[in-house]
Design a protein that fits this description.
With about 180 residues, the chain is an alpha/beta fold. It has 6 helices and 8 strands, in the order αβαβαβαβααββββ. It has an 8-stranded mixed β-sheet with strand order 3-2-1-4-5-8-7-6. A hairpin with a 2-residue loop joins strand 7 and strand 8. The longest helix is centred in the first third of the chain and has 15 residues.
Length: about 180
């Protein structure tokens, strides 16, 4: 696994020690960031169910102002911190949060600045609907003006086009993975 472009282009990232974590492929990350190119510079980015942190690190490499990495595994949070440290990324540019995704979002609604881009890539067996409905119900607190949510999911996992105020405006299929892009109305 490597950083695709930006300030840390070509730098290698440590991978998880087991197959329980399914990192977003280099090819899919490249496609994702080609689509997001105009949104990344200066953005507040959320990498939810961050795993190795590769997506959030790619955002930092391409000019995001701040990335919040959230994962429920202590080992994965340690791996994220190790990857950030190996790149020399300053601690003011990121937060690594040990939390389950919905717990983090419930706390976030009450306490922090909204995100410009939220990337959600949970284990494929996760119930996506509950979390996306919560984001839709609380989009004004979670997402900044024109903020978006991108969900990576398996092609057989068909997500709804709408979750309360959150509407899908784009879907991109690549291999067995799909990226669904949502924006609040």
């Amino acid at each position: 696994m490597r950083v695709i472009a930006g300030k840390f282009r070509g730098r290698k990232l440590k991978s998880p020690p087991s197959l329980q974590t399914r990192p977003t492929s280099d090819r899919l990350r490249e496609t994702l960031f080609n689509i997001l190119a105009a949104r990344i510079e200066g953005a507040r980015f959320l990498d939810l169910c961050a795993g190795t942190g590769a997506v959030g690190i790619e955002a930092l490499s391409r000019g995001a102002a701040h990335v919040t990495f959230v994962d429920q595994s202590r080992k994965m949070c340690g791996l994220i911190e190790s990857n950030l440290g190996s790149l020399g990324i300053g601690q003011d540019d990121y937060d690594v949060v040990l939390a389950e995704a919905s717990d983090y979002l419930r706390r976030h609604v009450k306490s922090e600045l909204p995100f410009d881009v939220a990337f959600f890539d949970p284990p494929y067996a996760t119930d996506y609907d509950v979390l996306l409905k919560f984001i839709g119900d609380n989009s004004a607190e979670i997402l900044g003006r024109d903020g978006i949510v991108i969900v990576e999911h398996h092609k057989k996992n068909l997500l709804a086009d709408q979750f309360t105020k959150l509407n899908r405006y784009r879907e991109l299929k690549q291999g067995d993975s799909v990226l669904s892009f949502y924006q609040a109305t």
